[in-house]
Amino acid sequence: MRPLTRLLRVGGVELGAGRPVRVQTMGNLPLTEVGANIAQIERCAALGCEIFRLALPDDFLLPFFGEIIAHSPLPVIADIHFHPSLLRKALEAGAAGARINPGNVGSSTDWSETVRLFEDLGAVMRIGVNGGSLNKEALKLHGHTAEALVASAQEWSNRLYDLGFYRFKVSLKSSDVRTTVQAYRLFSKVSDIPLHIGLTEAGPLPEGLIKSSAALGTLLLEGIGDTLRISLTAPPEEEVKAAWELLSSLNLRRRWPEVISCPLCARSSYPFTELLPKLLPRIKSLSLPIKVAFMGCEVNGPGEAREADIGLAFSKGKAFLFRKGEIVERGDPEPMVERLLQVLEEMARDPS
Predict the structure, then answer these.
(1) H-helix or E-strand containing 315?
(2) Backbone phi and psi for residue 205, each to the nearest 5 degrees, phi listed first
(3) How far apart, in whole angstroms, are the C-alpha atoms of residue 235 and residue 265?
(4) Count of structural domains, the chain
(5) 108 in the same domain as 230
(6) Contact 80, 91 (CB under 8 A)
(7) Is the domain of 234 the same as that of 297?
(8) CB proximity list for 266: less than 8 A, separation 6 or greater
(9) Same domain for 153 and 190?
């Protein structure tokens, strides 16, 4: 496991130094649509997002950007490309931090004043290295490799250290799973800088989710990652839900029930493949960090689902409600499904 990274605070959110892995996403609406942006952030916050990023491509958008921040329930990070002069303006508008891309902000910029402003405002910077926009020196020395990502991140980290600035984290993203994993592994061996993990340009559902889970799941199991975003060609709400499902599957954090179910076979006596999609929204709406099982026959449930906190097993036209592997009630399938939901809602009201 990776040694502890140093502590950072993004707004009121602590990260690194053994704190829980924080969930992040990015808005996908024009900044001119202020109300829609605020509503999107609120929806993401309700789903468990903790840090929200907004692209800021031009000066004329600053009034809209500032108004969104003023009404945001989450700390907002400004995403800056090509125009480092926007950093100061974004922070003055209320951003809790900013992400820059070393490949396109220019190497000749004097960062001393900008760094002082970050310090004065308690803001955090993210050095966001991307495989598709590496600087020429890194590409010349290493090509499109994990080593190039690491070299670029180290160069910028040293530049900030030389200015006496430590309030930053790093990301090293590629659209390739193996390159991304290797880059984070290499960097984490030589640095205690907090890491934001993600797979860039992962794609739409389900492909993007599968690729992101392969990369981020590997890293998280090795103790690498202080914040994460599952980047999808999908609404940010889907990214937040996916992030929590990943953290839950790794037993790192859990926000709502984890649902497990068997893949079904000829022994299955109840078509709950049709049932589950109808039940999941109701189950996932409960703030209950437990495991719920649905098993199609006497082979898989309740015995093989013994690690589940509660569940249903279907066999020979009947349904069996079990808790920790022990059957507690039995009856016809439809009433027992409703009974399970009733018990879950009771547990959510009184977790003790």
Answers:
(1) strand 310-315
(2) -75, 145
(3) 34
(4) 2
(5) yes
(6) no
(7) no
(8) none
(9) yes
Q: Please report whether residue 209 resides in a domain.
A: yes
Domain limits for position 300: 258-349
Tokens representing residue 21 in the block: 């892995």
| More reliable by pLDDT, 298 or 124 | 124
Residue 352 has pLDDT above 90, yes or no: no
CATH of the domain at 75: 3.20.20.20
Higher local confidence (pLDDT), 317 or 125 = 125
Output the pTM of the full model. Answer: 0.93
Same domain, 66 and 190: yes
What percent of the chain is modeled with pLDDT above 70? 98
- How many other β-carbons are positioned within 10 Å of the β-carbon of residue 47? 20
Q: Is residue 301 pLDDT above 80, yes or no?
A: no
- 301 and 322 in contact (C-beta within 8 Å)? yes
Burial 103-118 (b: 16+ CB within 10 A, else e): bebeeeeebeebbeeb
Write down the pLDDT at residue 280.
93
Do residues 44 and 216 lie in contact, with contact meaning Cβ atoms separated by under 8 Å? no
240 and 307 assigned to the same domain:
no
User: Computed from CA positions of residues 153, 154, 155, 157, in that sequence, does the dihedral angle turn out positive or negative?
Assistant: positive
The set of residues, in sequence order, having a beta carbon less than 8 Å from that of 272 and lying 6+ positions away, is 261, 294, 296, 314
- In the block, which residue shows the tokens 């690194």? 16
